[in-house]
Amino acid sequence: MKTDIILVIGACGQIGIELTVALRERYGRFNVIAADKVATADILLDALDQDALRNVVRNCGVTQIYLLAGTFSTPAEQDIPPGWKLNIQSLLSVLEVAKEQRLDKVFWPSSIAVFGPGSPKYNCPQQTCVEPDTVYGISKRVGEYWCNYYFEQYGVDVRSLRFSGLVACTAPTGYGTTDYAVSIFHQAIEKQHYTCFLNEDTCLPMMYLPDAIRAILELMDAPKEAITIRTSYNLAGMSFAPCDLAAEIKKHIPGFRIDYQPDHREMIAAGWPASIKDEQARKDWGWQPHFDLKGMTADMLAQLTKIKGAYPEQEQMALHDFPDFPNEDHDFTGVFKI
Ligand code: SER
C-alpha cells in the first residue's frame, strides 16, 4: 500500500502548528514534513520557490500538500505587491507541481474576505454576490478560481475552505482584522484590560482553531465524488462582536475591562459578512462545528493560562515548545536536502 507523505508549507503559522501536529497523529511523525521559512521547521522552504518545491516533492515522495503560507488582510492592504505575490504565486506553484507530479491531494485555505459590501450581511450563502474589496479578499477569490481551474482542466484534487476569523491559543497573535479575538485573551490574562481596534458591535464569523483543524481533516478525508465545490466551501463556526467576547471573558475574569479605538481595520471588517451559511459543507461531507463562544472562551482561557504559567517570560508559546513540533532533536534538513 502506498504511504501518504504530507508536505505542510507554512507549518509554523497560525493554522500550520496545530495542523502539523494533527497530521502527525494520523500519518506518523516522519511522514509529515513541516516546511517554513523559520529554523524550527523540518526544512527551510520559500513558498515562492517553485524549483525548490519540486525538488522536495520529488526527493521526499510527497503525495499531498497543505499550503498554508500566506499573508493576512491588514499587511496585504499596506503593501500590495508582496502580499499578492505570496498569496497567489505560492498557490500557482503548488498547483503546477501538483499537476506535474500527479499529487493525490492539495489543501489551500480561502477566507470569508472573498465576500464584500455587496454580499448578504447575515447568513451569507455559498452562492451569492462575491465582490471582495480588499487586496487579501481579491487574492483569495482569485485563488479560488485557480483551484477550480486546475481541478477542471487537469484533475488536480485541490480542496479549500473559506475560513472565518480563527482563534488559536498556540499561534502568535497575528496581523489579521479578526485577530483582536486572539489578542484580547492574552491581554485579559496579563493586564485584565484590552483596547480593541474594531467597534464594539462589529460582528464577524469566527471559529476556534480545533474546529478548523477538524474541518480540514474531514474535508481531505471525504471521497473525491462528494466534493461538489471546487472553488472553496463556506464554513461556519460562530459569530460574535467584540462586546460579546468581552462579556464572555468577564464571566471568567470579573475585573476585565475593554475600551474601543477603531482604526483602519474597522473599514475592512465592515465590508465582511457578520455570519455565514455553510449548508453545502454540511451536506457534502457532514460538517458540524463543536465550539460556540462559551466553549471557546473557557477553553482558550484554560489553555493560555497553562501555557503562560509554563512559559512566563514569553508573549506566547514558542513553536518548539509545542508538544511534538519539529525541533532541534529532529533536524530534517539533511534528510530532505533540497
Ligand atoms: N483572519 C483573516 C484576517 O483577518 C480573515 O480570514 O486577515
From TrEMBL:
Domain NAD-dependent epimerase/dehydratase: 6-228
Domain of life: Bacteria
Entries under Pfam families matching the protein: Epimerase
InterPro entries per the UniProt record, alphabetical: Epimerase_deHydtase, NAD(P)-bd_dom_sf, NAD(P)_epim/dehydratase
PANTHER family xref list: L-THREONINE 3-DEHYDROGENASE, L-THREONINE 3-DEHYDROGENASE, MITOCHONDRIAL
Family named by the database record: Belongs to the NAD(P)-dependent epimerase/dehydratase family.
Listed name of the protein: NAD-dependent epimerase/dehydratase family protein
Organism: Mucilaginibacter aquariorum
